[in-house]
## 1
Amino acid sequence: MKVPVLFLYVKPSQKHKRSLKMAEAHQAVAFQFTVTPDGIDLRLSHEALKQIYLSGLHSWKKKFIRFKNGVITGVYPASPSSWLIVVVGVMSTMYAKIDPSLGIIAKINRTLDTTGYMSSQTKNIVSGILFGTGLWVALIITMRYSLKVLLSYHGWMFAEHGKMSRATRIWMCMVKIFSGRKPMLYSFQTSLPRLPVPAVKDTVNRYLESVRPLMKDEDFKRMTALAQDFAVNLGPRLQWYLKLKSWWATNYVSDWWEEYVYLRGRGPLMVNSNYYAMDLLYVIPTHLQAARAGNGIHAILLYRHKLDREEIKPILLLGSTVPLCSAQWERMFNTCRIPGEETDTIQHLRDSKHIVVFHKGRYFKVWLYHDGRLLKPREIEQQIQRILDDPSEPQAGEAKLAALTAGERVPWAKCRQAYFGRGKNKQSLDAVEKAAFFVTLDETEQGYREEDPDASMDSYAKSLLHGRCSDRWFDKSFTFIVFKNGKMGMNAEHSWADAPVVGHLWEYVMSTDCFQLGYAEDGHCKGDTNPNIPYPTRLQWDIPEECQDVIETSLNTANILASDVDFHSFPFHAFGKGLIKKCRTSPDAFVQLALQLAHYKDMGKFCLTYEASMTRLFREGRTETVRSCSSESCSFVLAMVDPTQTVKQKLRLFKIASEKHQHLYRLAMTGSGIDRHLFCLYVVSKYLAVDSPFLKEVLSEPWRLSTSQTPQQQVELFDLERNPEYVSSGGGFGPVADDGYGVSYILVGENLINFHISSKFSSPETDSHRFGKHLKQAMNDIMALFGFSSNSRKEFH
């Protein structure tokens, strides 16, 4: 009699029993054995063993590539082959009876002589190789240190635009000489300088200068006294600890910024922290949801493939000379934020071979590889279509489960610990959290509609920002969203990286989707389906009623937050950066001054303004604040609303304000900002348990106008002269203050600027559409100062 010991089999759903006959062999486990009186009867599945072999081969290939890239990056700016050149050179001089080591080789030779195991010739060879290797390492260290010293110079940023001094040209040549050839993504990391700690008095003085136009005389006098007392007494003590950290840590800001600003936040991520990226503004290459998902997912995976191989080129400024830090790319994929009661953590895996897809309240696990290779776009489309065709209903509590990631963090953390720590719930949650990324097949149709541009773009923005509050997994590094009509977008978690990093991925995805992968005439992905690929697997849940109550509470919290968001997203067609540059001014400064003018007309007052700037000129740098509301910008705005001021006077004040803004931006980029330094001093004060009235007041000031420019980093991917309709919509974020505005903008090509404005309905002071009208008028009013009428703008277009 046979006694079954182990038999594992993946049971197909009732509907798919007939169609799965071809795939059953793939879904069976590699072996089955039974115990008989005659011994053990072992039966093998050759197809399953083949899949295991190919999967293992894929893993070993990735390990080898990581090892190879680690070696190449580790010796940069030299190369592994340069070791051979140095050693051969040393050996050649030795055989020519020339000692390049000044006696060091002879000392190595004498040391080896004590072993007694080597012949004279062997000792000479080994001595030469050891000295050559040491010389090679010394040269690498010297080149790397020299490059770090060179990259610590930032004088080029403060030079007048379009003019480059001879000293800067020489400096650029030196940087290129020491930068090596064909750098990989992380090649420059060890050569980037550390973020410097500004002097306390400098930061305090810059702070006082920034708040002067926002305070009454009495308030400013009181704040000046607080600031000066801090700069003389407590400030230097806190600064000592901060200096110590800057010498020890790679970056004195980034780890504390990630922990205290992001991970320790106990409020909802949705709206408050996460941000979104939109699809192309006008173009939908296919209206088939599964096909768009197939190409989009494949393009994302191609980017991940390049990232794993470090084939993505590092971002370089100043004519491909000055590198930016690439550290934020490390956690783009296979990453999830894990909730905790006091603080969250970031879970990152080196690899993940599946994604999780959400559709109509159900979760599906989709494998990304078959026969040891990445699934092709048509094969991914096939898998997505299988999900769309699946008629099964959500399990109890499953449909709204993702609302836990949209609500408060503490209930989610407690619920996760209580109900998702074992059994099928743990397995399914692991599948979500360990997926390469999360995909939502949205049931709505979104995107720009020419017959109703305002309502359509506002709906699109709100859908990407929060959706139905239970159909995006807000903890994942990013959720890829595909709508019913083929439009797509992305919702990204903020703690692991900033928007330009996600933007770099998104630019690649949109261009690869349209210009490289493309679609067949019937709208499907190119290529053939593959019936041998196993069906996506439904994730199984057993969610008790107590947990469902927590889900409902989180959903209510999220719905209240989402319904309060007032969004206005619109393309500004009147002119773009091309005409602004004709005015010989910075496009970013132009838009920022327009925002100041619009806000004054909207509110009748000035406010503390946040503009995000990057500090990635330094290792592990993230962001710094540019305080855009300055005395100079206020003087310009007041002149613009004063009918007695002449155009000449307004232009003069505009140029002064524009130059001031550019100077503030450059200071922020080069480590001389205000807010990150004060933030870190505040953290040190908390560690030391000392109270600072100055720091407490500074960090409690609300940012009622929070702004950010989305940069276009890969212009070469979109040839807008040939394809003028393939313009990006950019992305946006929720309001930072309850009674303020959040404004994101992207300068697309030469003739378009896309704006994304957010506020809250609950605030009687704000109205996103009203602010949008003021912003359009402000842009046109400033351009009119330069004598460009609407007709001349059309000619420029």
## 2
Amino acid sequence: MAYQKVSADQRAPGHSQYLDNDDLQATALDLEWDMEKELEEPGFDQFQLDNAEIQNLENPETTDLNLDSIQPATSPKGRFQRLQEESDYVTRYTRSAPKSNPCNFCRLLKILCTAIVLFISGILIGYYAHKKCPSSATSSATLDLQLYQEILETIQAEDIKKSFRNLVQLYKSEDDTEISKKIKTHWTALGLEDVQFVNYSVLLNLPGPGASSVTLSSSGQCLRPSGRPCSEEARTRSGQDLLDSYAAYSAKGTLEAGVIDVSYGNADDLKRIQKMKNTTNQIALLKLGKWPLLYKLSLLEKAGFGGVLLYVDPCDLPKTANLSYDAFMVSLNPGGDPSTPGYPSVDGSFRQNRANLTSLLVQPVSASLVAKLISSPNSRTKTGVCSPLELPDNDERIVNMQVQTVTKFKTITNVIGYLKGLTSPDRYIIVGSQHLTAPSSDGQEWASSTAVITAFIRALMLRVKKGWRPDRTIVFCSWGGTAFGNIGSYEWGEDFKKVLQRNAVAYVSLHSPIRGNSSLHSMASPSLRQLVIEKSHFNCSRKAKCQESNVSSVQIPGDADYFINHLGVPTVEFTYEDVKTLEGPSFLSEALFPKRTAKIEEMDPFFNLHETITKLTGEVILQIANEPVLPFNALDVALEVQNSLKGDQPNTQLLALASRLRESTELFQSDEMRPANDPKERIPIRVRMLNDILQDMEKNFLVQQVPPGFYRNILYHLDEKTSQFAILLGARERCKLLASNETLQEALSEVLNSINSAQVYFKAGLDVFESVLVGKN
């Protein structure tokens, strides 16, 4: 705001030298009125005059009109409200009319009365107009917090518990057809729109007609994967239970060879072993954890091993987890139908003959079988200290392992339901759970997952029936074939790839919400981390006992895989974990243990944890679906890149490129994200352009070549203990086994190209916004 001093000597040419009292009084009123209009603009809501200016106003005949020194003050009130609050406003800021001219007083009185009448009329008109025509912003944006709470308050732990128990009763079904029908019927009854089956005929690898076995050559004792004698297990367990332990898509057959303990099977372990022994066609004794299983198997395959006995060391599990006799299942499928890699399994698709995905015979076994193999009676001593299972290098053990599996085409079913958005129906927030398809599962994990997603649908549809809708479309998915390599989600993603590349905004995972009961663990893309921390803190503030928010961007099991690694969609997942499990080796979740139904109810007897997960997840879904500007943070992505480059071997070129990326995102965050905070900035075309940039920014970090089992999206770390890019860690591991560093150079090139792509992406976005603004001006 600028005001200019006016004096008798500074009047414009042609202006009268003399102003009578009436003109002076009117001029003063006009100046006050104009000044008030200026002060109502942002940043000028309040003002005050110092003593010098007050004295000047009281002596108009001898001083100039000086308005330059008016400063903003402290009260953001409107003009009329300020008049009501300050009784001496008129006396301080207006000049008294000369007593010699009574007409001036009448004129002032008329103006004052007119202003009061207009003011009262404006209030009445505004009140009734607002009452009859509520602001359009209330459709989704301005009602946010209150609306979210009203929706989430209807979620009750008791309802989730009932749903869980009903679902568990269906686990005896031979396939997922009956379960899928039950889910579809339930979702439709709740009011969800367009609930449909999406079926795919896929190649599954299932246990053979007889159970696999391991025979100790020294004693001739035959053991089942659980560690029990073959004859005893045949008498005490049913045929279906014998199928609990196998590796889907393993090679099948029989192998008799020596056992070599390779510990966790990393590059250092293999380098040490190969110096001492011939590994060709031998059987590796391999611990699960620390690195992705598919990566470790690829190293063993290259080292010449013929078979693998896979187990989980009890020392890597919490003391409360007694799984010594539990067999487990793993899948060697990186994702999707193996017979149609990279394209959907629709009718007429070419089918490749891929009965097994590795040349290795892989058999998961229990810790008790390993203990018998190495003649170790107990892994824990009397003092409670755990001794890791280990076969001495100089000990020889010969075993005969028999792996029996069969491959067949079966139909797996996804259940998909839609809640169409009001203003942006072509933008999808995808929410995914799983339902039973694994032969070794008894309904624990998937029932918990399905009960949570159903509880949120119920709460949401209660509000929809009252006339409300989200701005963006919410797609609810119950995936089939998850245990075999996330087949249902992969096939659906490949089937609708072109649509999802353009329209998918975020993926919210409900794969396995309750894995423990001691710690809330949150996984989120870097761009969603701020939102997740905010919601976690809010949830914590409502509880008497809170822990520090644990939010990370790490590889997770489940159906989020396709959306993270092939679509580059920001992803979030809330789970409850055991603290000891988080402290142990990563990737133990690749083992699917056949949990008992009582286990979930032991961890969460009142289903309060289920309720918390449902409400937290629901609040994040609602905010992503309704915020005019997507709640994604571009700067956090750049910061994550810089943090991932910290380490013992910094690359100057990468660091410089990451610094430029940060500068671009800082500028983008400060200049272009204003519509997120200021409704006046929300020009529709500008908001749409901004959301398109935020939606697609993680796609820049998808790389083409990664080691088996690694994420293609390099923003995700291997685990919470490592902060460097996983692709670089894997490349350095491989360099230990190879003579050249070519693998490392390729990985560095992939990272460099990703960072450069992101920097160019944000720079182009800034240029587009600038050209749009210039065109408008």
## 3
Amino acid sequence: METDEGSRRVLPFQLQFDKPLASQVKMAEWNPEKDLLAMVTEDSKVVLHRFNWQRLWTISPGKCITSLCWRPDGKVVVLGLEDGTVSLHDVENGKLLRSLKSHAAAVVCLNWEEDAQVNRDTSGNPLAFEDRTTRFFPPAPRVPRMPRLVPGETGLTEDGQDSFEELSNSSKQCFNILCSGDKDGFLCFSVFGVFPIGNVNIHECDIPTTTKDRNIVGRLLNASIRKVVLSKDLCHLMVACSGELVEDIVESRGGQMVGDSMHGFHCLVLDTSIFQKSENELHQVAQQASNIEDLLHVIRTSLSVMNKQWADAMNIFHEKFDLLSNLINDHGLDSSPQEEFLSLLGGARTSQAVHQFLLSSLGEVGMKRVSKVVCGAGKELQLVVLNHLQPAVEIIGFRMGELRGLSRWRSRYLGIGLYETLVDNAVERAGMLLVQVERFIRVLSSVLQQFANFFSWLLKCIKQLMSEPSDQLLTYNSELVVVFLKFLYDQDPVMQLLDLPKADEEIDIDSETMQRVRELVQFGGFGDSEYLQRTLAEEFQQMEHSFREAAQMPFSTISKKILCKNLLPLFPLTSVSASTRYIPISLSFYEDASEFTSSNQTHEVGFTDYISFQIPDESFLDVTNCIAVVRGFMNYLSNVKQGRSLEGILLCIPPGYYCVDLALYKEHQIVMLLNKMNDTRENLGDAWLMILQASDLPFVHISGITWENNWELYQLKDSILHLEMENEKIRSIPHAVVPPLSVSASRGVACVLAARKRALVYILDEDEDEISDSE
């Protein structure tokens, strides 16, 4: 630059902070509602800072983080992981709220958008749906903790429960959709970020376009998604991806042939209008289904906790009482422990093996310890059932009933795949599970009573053998001791109900009871009369399967209604390395200056899409060091009658600089980060931050999109706009910079990352008041 650069007009961007970083940052996103910046470091740690650079928390998921975004209200930060997991974390403390395994490959991009039209409801409030569950039930039960573990060791936290409930309380949220894309070309959608509602494989999308004498359907091969963004009205999804575009030509007289292929960078537009058309229906189904999903997690964890607690107790019991079998063998006796105990109960002479076991191997202290462990575990199981398992099953039954009521409104809910027969089956399974829980409560209570009676008798026997007084001990029932020795000493009906059965194994039910169950079918009883022969764990498994089957139909139905509208080829890629390297690109939707009236006479807000990206020098021979800006691609396809068209412009970066990253900003502005270079593009150590007013750029009309035009943007090569540093809104940065550039549209700030582990925060607006750090 020339020496007179320092005498230019006042610098428009105010440097707020220049702070060192412990590790280089690879991703950064500003909170949409608060002065918070989430950053992902090279070692896959997430750090949250306030605007005043106060660090609030740091978390490490333990896996490589590949993408990052915020929920629209700023209360949840979302991470995409290398193993295909999408995890939701509380903004207050970083606690994990939910994990969704929606992908089989690394999640490379995320976008969470809420319906802007809802926010413009004439009442001034978002549409809310009443959750009637709170009328009849107390708050949903919490997830129980595993025994002998402190909160946090298993992810089942107590302090994050309120945040988890807030995440699940969809009735108070505006309708929103979380979209995630993986490196293998799959896009997944979830309502409120917790209820999966559809997916799309972009390799299987038919990409239609038409010429005068033939119809062409295109397919993408080896596609890799780079960025996704939902429109503000949720009607369209723009997908930036690289891949090979192959033509399938369908001739007008029939027949089919394979046409040309185009390997490069493309922008897809998917029609997601089903989200807006069925917003109310999806909201209510997602509200019930997501809460059922949470309760299933409570039941699953409760069964796991109870299984472990009872198994540990029984291991201790058998560890002690198996010693008696060894002593019987050592003394050469031909009897079983049960027979020896029955002889002792009947008043016969105590054998040497039993005498040694009661006084030496077991003893009074050992007997009390075993009694405490078994009875204590039983009481813990009763608490888990009463406080977690049973309330969860009851609420699930009610919410299933709510879904059944919705499914019977076929004119509205059949169109999103809510099938009455599948929901009815899930409702019946929930009822069967509730019966199983009540049976388990009775069985557990009976088993505990018999264990306690058996232990009281043994303790009294030990006292008598030691010639000590036993008047103060609890009395026992001899008949219950006989029942225990016959049915419970070497059998475990509690664990039988908690475990999944082995092959061809079922619970024995007397014929009279089975006949009564079958007779109840004609009076409205359960159609499946074999449920009493299943275990509690097996019944839960079947109920969960029936719910998944009912929920899968809306997922499949919505997936089929998300279609590709068209594709815009952006630029060719000449090598594999070019396909994988970082290419600055930004997608965004801005509100139109004027509102319009839709075909159904409703007053709506229009949106214009902007696509801004860097064109690699090797893509076009006579286009070098340029940024392309395209607008109106979505409107070109769906609103031609309103006079909108596809427009674009090529911006040539000033000589001696190249674009490191860019971001679309509020009021139709483009923020660019430029590095100085020499002939080899080696960084010389200084950079510039530049803002352009996109709406003031001299856009050029692009002719109709057809396959014959191939790379349509090449039409703009004769109207390149050369940027000049002297004429633009810029700010010098005294460091070499690296991507990403993170810009907050709501706060008017940008975070710039230096190559030497530094972060610089700039206030972008000249008239921006100093941002408060009180939030």
## 4
Amino acid sequence: MEEMEEELKCPVCGSFYREPIILPCSHNLCQACARNILVQTPESESPQSRRASGSGVSDYDYLDLDKMSLYSEADSGYGSYGGFASAPTTPCQKSPNGVRVFPPAMPPPATHLSPALAPVPRNSCITCPQCHRSLILDDRGLRGFPKNRVLEGVIDRYQQSKAAALKCQLCEKAPKEATVMCEQCDVFYCDPCRLRCHPPRGPLAKHRLVPPAQGRVSRRLSPRKVSTCTDHELENHSMYCVQCKMPVCYQCLEEGKHSSHEVKALGAMWKLHKSQLSQALNGLSDRAKEAKEFLVQLRNMVQQIQENSVEFEACLVAQCDALIDALNRRKAQLLARVNKEHEHKLKVVRDQISHCTVKLRQTTGLMEYCLEVIKENDPSGFLQISDALIRRVHLTEDQWGKGTLTPRMTTDFDLSLDNSPLLQSIHQLDFVQVKASSPVPATPILQLEECCTHNNSATLSWKQPPLSTVPADGYILELDDGNGGQFREVYVGKETMCTVDGLHFNSTYNARVKAFNKTGVSPYSKTLVLQTSEDTDSEEQTLPFPVPSERLPLRRMSPFSSTLNLQPSFPGRSYFDFRSSPHQLSLHSSLQSLNAPVAWFAFDPGSAHSDIILSNDNLTVTCSSYDDRVVLGKTGFSKGVHYWELTVDRYDNHPDPAFGVARMDVMKDVMLGKDDKAWAMYVDNNRSWFMHNNSHTNRTEGGIAKGATIGVLLDLNRKNLTFFINDEQQGPIAFDNVEGLFFPAVSLNRNVQVTLHTGLPVPDFYSSRASIA
């Protein structure tokens, strides 16, 4: 009820309405306040003069606000009319509700009549203080406005509900507070008196007991006043004019302006409008409920903002402290270098001082000795030693002349600290990005009809939900390692289809995808379970719903594969079976195993050095440079036994190409084996060496020429690497303890051209030796 109080107060005086009247704009005013804000208008704008001129106007003509009212966008109140001799010049005042009002144009005449009956100035105008619409009063003045009886009743009930509590009427001494009222007995009772004097049995059981406040309202309310017609004050309202939307009396229908209008029964329209108001209130009630929930959310946001602010400040302080600590550590390191340089300079200078001191002492001794020899008068004795002394003097002089008297160290420190990049970085230190308020994308949907497996490759396709309105900047595809391990990202980009090559044979993988934009990432899609083939040497069976040829999928190599990127021409037959559950989708591929699996692959132009030249469907390779350049195969191996060969098509000027395996990030501009990412055999026309991390081992006689065949056998079950030349093993096992993901690799220059041969079985002698072992 307290929240309703503002609806019950006059916008002019700020108090509860007293004898409220209804303006044509549907706003209310106290009758006394309406008199106070009347303004007299020029004679030419009066209703009588308008009627005399023949213009058809109603009793309440709204005036042109631009011409007649001082109200404008710059003035939030309403004012008297300007440009007329009768317009008041007294400054406006403000009501308690903040509405600007003007004093009357002339003091009201002394009268003993009520405000409703007191005469108003002729040609008066009133402006609504809420919507600022102005209208001219007719001869009836304020009596022409209907009284708001409903509003009076609401104010009466509200004021009574705020009054003091009612007392029991049957307590003999100190009356207690009443708890109920009997409508039939018209008596207020406290609980003890109700049980004693008004027991709930017999005839009293049928009496209706109500709360005291409700009983007080029903008891004190006077009989409802019957509303009378404003045009015919002796007639009561009996009908409702649909066109004018107002109650009318019988006389209005007979001779008034409503005679030709559509009218309906007052009671029926009363019930209809009550029903419409109730329905409108239901919608407003829902909005009010939402507003309350929104306010609770805002208050929670205030608390969350304070907590996030404290957390963010702590994080910022920690980050700045970490930068300061790092700067202090670097400062200590730089000071240590300065101290080291300082000690080095002092040592060099002190050593030179010591050396020069010794040499000067020797030189001074030689000089003194020579002077004493010169003093001797024995010619023969002098001549016996003079030649030697002369040579010693010249030799000593030459020793002093070879930069001996030049300082070996300067006093300046040849260290210059360039702190400008760091200062610039500090000045540019700022928050990277403020979190956007837009939502994250919807969860992508994996399209089973376009997902398939082929040998050890899998093609996955996905899309955004049909009703999604939030755009995605890209997608992140993740696979596990085939052994139920952690998921890893295998693709990040805008495409909605991707082929992952090089999965383990006969392995089960889980795949999932999520979308992202500047705001964040979406939840993961359902997990797709897929099974790779058991064997690569079988016929191929495609899905009944193949991937459309016009949608060429992206190809990505798996970081945990056993073999990567099988050739599409490799024969194989796959049978697919779809299974679904609430949390997983399943794509199964099973193959009929005939022989041991072998891998078909070619060289990878995407990862090769720019000087590499590929031909013959990327199976033949040479180089345009005289320096060694590296090229890798498309297939990577992490388990199993794999064998491939390379034939020498051209061999000029006895170069030394290298063959072996390497990691994906091997150096591409040096010979294979120069870094720790490659294991290789390099060979010339006479002999070969094994090389890893620039370490050369196991020199073996026997080289290559045009037409020679080099075989590479990678046994990841035994973790070793062996080389062959012309079907003969070249040296011992080249490398042991090789683990991880390896790609076939070759390094060569422009004097060599080789061709790759894949899909080869393991040599028989090695298979038999492995079975014996």
